[in-house]
């Protein structure tokens, strides 16, 4: 039964029957897919918009100095109670960021012995922010790709 037949059946007071949803869906799919864009004078459908116009906006980026601060502070807390620092590449750090981490952890270990864990935690945040701010003051370091 076509959609026109369904309207006539409803008008006549007859039940539509179980096949009408499938017929309606088939009709909509057949006409909806062909008319997805506007057609030019020759009847050729217009091209679809490029995918980039349909995608969501890109996420905001974190400035390099702030990213450095976050990652150095994170790894400083991870290695504070350890006897080794680990591999800087496995931590996702550059050589320069690793140097900041080593300085921060050394200072945090001393602060923890003298003043406790809370003082060490505050020192990590402060020293990581200062070290990374110095490193990224003029933008990204240009000493080499590993720096």
List strands and helices in order, with pairings.
Layout: H1 3-11, H2 20-34, H3 51-54, H4 64-79, H5 95-115, H6 117-135
Helix pairs in contact: 4-5, 4-6, 5-6
SSE sequence, one letter per element: HHHHHH
Q: Tally of extended strands?
A: 0
Shape: elongated
Question: Rg to the nearest angstrom?
Answer: 32 Å
Distance between the termini: 72 Å
How is the biggest beta sheet arranged?
A: none
Helix content: 55-70%
- The proportion of residues in beta strands is under 5%
Mean pLDDT across all residues, rounded? 75
Low-confidence stretches: none
Enumerate how many helices there are, as a single number.
6
Label the structural class: mainly alpha
Description:
This protein has helices at 3-11, 20-34, 51-54, 64-79, 95-115, 117-135. It has 147 residues and is mainly α.
Short précis:
It is built from 6 helices and no strands. It has helices spanning 3-11, 20-34, 51-54, 64-79, 95-115, 117-135.
Structure characteristics:
57% helix; mainly alpha; 147 residues
């Amino acid at each position: 039964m076509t959609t026109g037949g369904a309207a006539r059946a409803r008008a006549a007071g007859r039940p539509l029957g179980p096949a009408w949803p499938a017929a309606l869906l088939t009709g909509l799919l057949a006409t909806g897919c062909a008319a997805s864009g506007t057609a030019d004078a020759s009847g050729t459908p217009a091209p679809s918009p490029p995918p980039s116009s349909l995608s969501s906006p890109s996420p905001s980026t974190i400035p390099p100095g702030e990213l450095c601060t976050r990652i150095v502070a994170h790894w400083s807390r991870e290695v504070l109670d350890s006897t080794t620092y680990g591999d800087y590449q496995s931590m996702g750090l550059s050589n320069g960021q690793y140097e900041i981490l080593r300085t921060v952890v050394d200072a945090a270990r001393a602060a923890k012995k003298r003043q406790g864990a809370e003082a060490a935690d505050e020192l990590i945040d402060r020293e990581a922010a200062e070290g990374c701010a110095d490193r990224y003051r003029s933008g990204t370091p240009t000493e080499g790709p590993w720096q």
